[in-house]
Amino acid sequence: TSLKEKHKILHQLLQNSTSPVDLA
Amino acid sequence: HLHLEEFISRIMEAEPPEIYLMEDMKKPFTEASMMMSLTNLADKELVLMISWAKKIPGFLELSLADQIHLLKCCWLEILMLGLMWRSVDHPGKLIFSPDFKLNREEGQCVEGIMEIFDMLLAATSRFRELKLRREEYVCLKAMILLNSSEYLCTSSPQTAEELESRNKMLRLLDSVIDALVWAISKLGLTTQQQTLRLGHLTMLLSHIRHMSNKGMDHLSTMKRKNVVLVYDLLLEMLDANT
Questions:
Q1: Chain A residues touching residue B233 (CB < 8 angstroms)
Q2: pLDDT classification of A24: cutoffs 50, 70, 90
Q3: Which of B73, B71, B93, B72 is nearest to B84 (CA)?
């Protein structure tokens, strides 16, 4: 949980399958 | 377990697309405007970097904690190596993006950045002298991702899961080193020249680590002095290092 909180966006991008181009 | 040729072709395919800053550049730059452009671009590139790392064969098999750890350690080194690769055919210039190119004098407007620009230009010249090949560049970038000193030299795995992830990481590093050796072997050099080239290329990684540390200190200072507002992913990555 602490990792998730500390690195919220990084965590989300690593887990997310959405195209990073859309997110950028 | 991929064949080296396939491994390299997978990391070549993982390369992020060209990225544009897409801002109206008002010259001459001020300290704030240049730092804003640099950090905006870095933030965009970081998103693509995470997607790149995910495409390195084996990276997603590491524990999520290790994936996060490796990325937060190396992100500025990766950005700098990418910058050097884009700039390698443009002596005296730093090609941050096709629409954001700077020469060293333009760094004058930001306190302390010219020293870093000079180091980047010098390391880029070294890559130019060595005639760095794309195959070698992608291997070096993957080596940076996996070469966290904190991870390799200071922490010891506590749980079975951590141990497994660390072993996977070391095997992945073996594959990348093998791939670099293979890429060098394709250049038609003698065995001795190949060994020297491997040495010269990998020694440049310590310079990149040094520049990244300098850059991290510089960005933290700029943030502390409120020269630039650091936000989103870049803020998270910077905070992880300070």
A1: 9-10, 13
A2: very low
A3: B93
Give B102-160 pLDDT, tens digit per residue: 999 999 999 999 999 999 999 999 999 999 999 999 999 999 999 987 666 666 778 89
- Please check whether residue B223 is in contact with residue B58, taking contact to mean a CB–CB distance below 8 angstroms: no
From A19's Cα to the closest Cα of chain B, the distance in A is 8
For residue B15, is pLDDT > 50? yes
Task: Find the helix or strand (DSSP H, E) in which B100 lies.
Answer: strand B100-103
Disruptive mutation site among B19, B20, B52, B54 for chain A (greatest number of A CBs within 10 Å): B54
| Two structure tokens written together for B7 | 């491994």
CA distance B46 to chain A (A): 9
Among B20, B48, B51, most A C-beta atoms within 10 A, so best to mutate, is B51
Residue found by looking up tokens 């750890």 in the block: B69
Q: Report the alpha-carbon distance of residue B82 to residue B43 in Å, rounded.
A: 14
ipTM of the complex: 0.86
- Cβ of B27: how many Cβ atoms within 10 Å? 8
Q: Is B68 on the interface with A (CB under 8 A)?
A: yes
Write down the number of H helices and E strands in chain B.
9, 2
